[in-house]
Specification:
about 325 residues, alpha/beta, 8-stranded mixed sheet, 13 helices
Length: about 325
């Protein structure tokens, strides 16, 4: 009997392979086209508010013709919070209310990150310092306490060494050490820093598997898995999907040698009052790295944060906020 429909006929493997190949090429071409169009398009709009544990108004200031997004709450001695590699404003969400009762708290998205513009540049340490100085000028802050997490701590160190009059006190939270690649223990961060893949290919993978990738990274930098709710993971993935984000991230590979040959060799020259805070369960840079950084900076204080990983200010804000208030208050 003749078959009544084609669905039951055997599928020619060659035809299947050709069809799948054509669809893959089409998907690849579409992704590449989107990447090119995104690079040529106007910068995305910056929302009026950011959704964190509470809705907070987002402000912007032009620095070197680029929009820098930031939060500005409270009054008193100014404190600037600086996020780390691949981070953004949300990593400081639990500091906004607690610290603003004592200080003027300014939290920025660095150029190339979060809601801020992502200009075509090398993102060298000296360029990032120029933007930070320009930001402080733009918001009319001649001097502030700088609080940096991870690579943000590296930027704070650079400010203390090159613009010492702009820094009052220094807080380094799970910060950037000397010999980064030797001391780094996070497989995900290591892969991100060592990849030689072009930005369009990384963007392609990010589009397809971004949520899985960000969940894997968060599981390494956050000690308590109960904090990684679907809402937190989805928010992190949305931030990772913002246009233009991948290319600035990939510049870290080229810029690490500049850190090692520059500011990293001068950490011992820091003269500012310094507090080093470290999560006891940090799987990016183990606590021994923090203890070494503390010993390198003469007169610094060291605070261990129990049950916390690489972003203890987010995992244990109760403990970290009290450490910050005690150290920064005159």
């Amino acid at each position: 009997m003749r078959q009544s429909s084609s669905w039951s006929r055997p599928i020619d493997p060659c035809v299947l392979s050709r069809v799948c190949g054509q669809r893959l090429v089409t998907l690849f071409a579409f992704t590449l086209l989107c990447h090119i169009m995104t690079a040529c398009s106007s910068p995305p709009s910056i929302p009026a508010q950011i959704d964190a544990i509470e809705r907070m108004p987002v402000q912007t200031v032009l620095v070197h013709d680029q929009r820098i997004a930031y939060l500005d709450v409270g009054t008193g001695p100014p404190v600037i919070l600086i996020h780390g590699f691949g981070g953004s404003i949300w990593q400081w969400e639990y500091q906004q209310h607690g610290l603003s009762q004592h200080f003027r708290v300014i939290t920025l998205d660095l150029p190339g990150s979060g809601l801020s513009d992502k200009p075509e540049m090398d993102y060298r340490p000296d360029q990032m310092l120029d933007y930070l100085v320009g930001f402080m000028d733009g918001v009319k802050i001649p001097q502030a306490t700088l609080v940096g997490n991870s690579m943000g701590a590296g930027l704070a160190i650079g400010m203390a060494l090159t613009h010492p009059s702009r820094v009052d006190k220094l807080v380094l939270i799970d910060g950037l050490p000397q010999q980064v690649m030797t001391k780094l223990t996070s497989p995900s961060v290591r892969r991100a820093l060592e990849t030689s893949a072009p930005s369009w290919l990384v963007s392609f993978g990010n589009m397809l598997f971004g949520r899985l990738m960000i969940e894997s990274v968060l599981q390494e930098i956050v000690h308590n898995p109960a904090l990684l709710t679907p809402t937190v993971i989805e928010r992190s993935n949305r931030n990772r999907q913002r246009p233009g984000l991948i290319k600035p991230l990939l510049t870290a590979r080229e810029n690490l040698p500049l850190w090692e040959s520059g500011f990293a060799t001068r950490i011992g020259d820091i003269i500012h009052p310094t507090l080093v805070i470290w999560g006891e369960e940090d799987r990016v840079f183990p606590i021994a790295v923090g203890e070494e950084l503390h010993r390198t900076i003469k007169g610094s204080r060291f605070a261990r944060i129990p049950a916390a990983g690489h972003i203890p200010q987010w995992e244990r804000p109760d403990v970290v906020n009290q450490e910050l208030i005690t150290f920064i208050e005159p």
